[in-house]
């Protein structure tokens, strides 16, 4: 070897992707869908009940990838090669048994790009891990808040807390309120530390003064932003392929209003799917937001809209409470 690319060079990721290009040909040949990242590849497929033939293709694909790597002076890290099945509990048990018979050890949860995925996609383990990490950093921030300015303290909160709460939050659509509440309590605690608010004081005015969207609305913001990017050729094609423009059978006022077809679902769990949740949330937006000309404009008016929705709802709740006490 007479020359090479220095470690950390900007050319290294590009050249590595070119070097690994034959892997995509192996996956396509075995009819396996895939996503490739810097040094991580995710392959996946869909199964029908009692039809496990695609699993044979998956196992063959993994064997061919291993052989290709051996021929090209690479090694497949079997300790980090994880297999997981998603779906109905009974079907997942059958699929796991078949995979074990083919020498593929399955797991009940795996970590993918920092997100913990479980077979039932409840994200309870992921939320628990985020909560544990966030409270650890909150305690450290609280110890030094007397020694730093308010501006620096806010930077620390966003760097160590907000970034963790917001990371991949587009996956948390449709989760139970008790799960989202754990993340909301993190945001509440961060707001109290930043503003030195007592636990006995109501948190809603504090969040409003900081101009922080509650966690539920932050999730909606991320989802709607992904939809806007996808519809305007600014996002991944696989997300854009999930959406179909709404076209009524006869002339209606909704024609040309940038609405989307909402897929039909028959279970509560399927309402959490991104394709359903995102399309329904998009159609609920005012038309002037959906038809925003630029991404910057869309983000600005969307946050204003969600901010007003979040704190108008809380104000209405307070009014109802006051009325109850009065009577």
UniProtKB/TrEMBL annotation:
Residues of the signal peptide: 1-26
Keyword tags: Signal
Residues covered by the Reverse transcriptase domain: 1-117
Signal keyword on record: yes
PROSITE patterns, per the entry: RT_POL
Pfam families reported in the protein's UniProt record: RVT_1
Name this polypeptide is given: Reverse transcriptase domain-containing protein
């Amino acid at each position: 070897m007479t020359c090479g690319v220095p470690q950390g060079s900007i050319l290294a990721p590009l050249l590595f992707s070119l070097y690994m290009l034959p892997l995509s040909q192996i996956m396509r040949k075995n009819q396996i869908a895939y996503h490739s990242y810097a040094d991580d590849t995710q392959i996946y497929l869909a199964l029908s009940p009692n039809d496990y033939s695609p699993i044979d293709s998956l196992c063959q694909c993994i064997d061919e990838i291993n052989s290709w790597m051996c021929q090209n002076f690479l090694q497949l890290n079997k300790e980090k090669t994880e297999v997981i099945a998603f779906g109905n509990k009974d079907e997942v048990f059958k699929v796991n048994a078949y995979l074990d018979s083919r020498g593929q050890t399955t797991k009940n949860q795996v970590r993918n790009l920092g997100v913990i995925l479980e077979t039932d996609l409840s994200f309870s383990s992921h939320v628990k891990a985020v909560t544990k990490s966030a409270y650890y950093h909150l305690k450290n921030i609280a110890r030094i808040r007397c020694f730093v300015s308010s501006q620096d303290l806010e930077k620390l909160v966003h760097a160590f807390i907000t970034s963790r709460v917001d990371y991949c939050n587009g996956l948390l659509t449709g989760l139970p309120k008790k799960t989202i509440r754990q993340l909301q309590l993190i945001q509440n605690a961060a707001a109290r530390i930043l503003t030195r608010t007592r636990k006995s004081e109501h948190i809603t005015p504090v969040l409003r003064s900081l101009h922080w969207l509650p966690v539920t609305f932050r999730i909606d913001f991320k989802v709607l932003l992904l939809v806007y990017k996808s519809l305007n050729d600014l996002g991944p094609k696989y997300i854009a392929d999930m959406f179909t423009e709404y076209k009524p059978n006869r002339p209606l006022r909704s024609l040309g209003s940038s609405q989307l077809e909402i897929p039909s679902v028959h279970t509560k769990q399927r309402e959490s799917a991104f394709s359903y949740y995102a399309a329904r949330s998009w159609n609920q937006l005012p038309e002037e937001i959906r038809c925003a000309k630029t991404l910057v404009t869309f983000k600005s008016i969307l946050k204003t809209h969600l901010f007003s929705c979040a704190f108008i709802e809380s104000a209405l709740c307070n009014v109802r409470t006051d009325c109850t006490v009065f009577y």
